[in-house]
Write a structure and sequence with these properties.
The chain is built from no helices and 13 strands. With 165 residues, the protein is an all-beta fold.
Length: 165
């Protein structure tokens, strides 16, 4: 049974997310998560490679989101032809180990993607962390979305909901 973590039909849901872009290291990329009248959220912005930048991300506020026994993260989304990462954090730190899985949703239709938790890889500041403990779904505290991988330019990812299965 799916546990819904974020339902973006509620107007206040997008307000629980904050941008953490490459500006933290001197870059100039920008992003935001905003609610749209059609009843979903949009992760949007612009990725710039200037000043050694190259990523934009948003992250939910911290709360107990975990689910014991969960095996997958579900995201109902419509893309723009670009590749994104879904991030999961198991603590409240701003800068710590993040578990990430890549996805590339179709631009022409809504779809629900199932990302197995076993496919989420631990990373720290964009680099794989060898020897990190496996993702423990009961400890999930924050969820994020990220675009990077030198995908310069405007982006727009539409999201209806995110859940655990």
């Amino acid at each position: 049974m799916t546990t819904v973590l974020f339902e973006f039909s509620a107007p206040a849901a997008a307000g629980r997310w904050a941008a953490i872009d490459d500006r933290v290291m001197g870059g100039v990329s920008q992003s935001r998560m905003r609610q749209v009248p059609e009843g979903h959220a949009v992760f949007e912005g612009h990725v710039s490679l200037e000043r050694n930048g190259g990523f934009a991300s948003v992250r939910s506020d911290s709360s107990q989101l975990g689910k014991t026994g969960a095996t997958a993260c579900l995201i109902e989304t419509r893309g723009d032809g670009k590749r994104y990462k879904l991030s999961i954090l198991t603590d409240d730190a701003l800068d710590g180990v993040v578990y990430q899985a890549s996805f590339a949703p179709a631009p022409d239709a809504w779809q629900t993607l199932c990302l197995p938790l076993a496919d989420f890889r631990p990373s720290f500041r964009g680099r794989e962390v060898r020897g990190a403990p496996p993702l423990q779904p009961s400890r999930i505290r924050q969820v994020g979305l990220l675009i990077g991988d030198r995908q310069e330019g405007a982006f727009s990812l539409q999201v209806r909901r995110i859940g655990l299965d």
